[in-house]
Amino acid sequence: MLRRRTVGDVMTEEVVTLRPDTPLHEAAALLDANDIAAAPVIDEDGLPLGVVSASDVLRHETGMPDPQGQDSDDEHAWDKARAHTAGTLMSSPAFTARTDWTIPRAARELRQRHIKQLPVVNDTGHLTGIVTRSDLLDAFIRSDNEIHDEIEQDVLGRILGLDKGTVAVNVQDGTVTLRGHLPEPRLTPAVVGLCQGVDGVIAVHAHLTTTRTG
């Protein structure tokens, strides 16, 4: 099987975290100093409780409403307006991802929840990293050389067992062109399908001849 990259492959493992009692001015300073958009709030055991984002801090300071309507409850909105710590300002519960999630699953979760990052937890629920929209985009924006090597080594060599040089691979701006001769007609759709499944591939053009049987 062709291995698809997961959240664990692209996440940032060194995570800037906050505690529930972290003062807001310290939280804002940490976000600014590390040039990050958000930080998870964790308890003393390392379990995510919520997330404080730079936009949360900005809205708190300016008194602007939550554009996603997450603070529609008047009492909750009032609590946030009076917030002085990360624990009272954070968005909770913390929506999290798992290291074994596929990239498309994590991207779908971000889109559905209208958020830009997800804390990543392990099997025990403890924080192990964080994944952002840009991390997920980077998984698909790969160099032509990376795509070429994966197709040649993994798809054609390891999975299909074809001798090197049987199929010539050219990759230009994510578009793959295949030229060569295959020993069996049934291999053509397999080659094309597997190449289409490689992260970063935009299109596959196959110019493959086969040995007819029967």
Automatic annotation (TrEMBL):
PROSITE patterns given in the database record: BON, CBS
Every CBS domain range: 11-72, 90-150
Gene3D superfamilies listed in its UniProt record: CBS-domain
Pfam families from the UniProt entry: BON (PF04972), CBS (PF00571)
UniProt KW keywords: CBS domain
Top-rank lineage group of the source organism: Bacteria
BON domain ranges (all copies): 144-212
SMART domains: CBS
Protein name: Transport protein
Species whose genome carries this gene: Streptomyces azureus
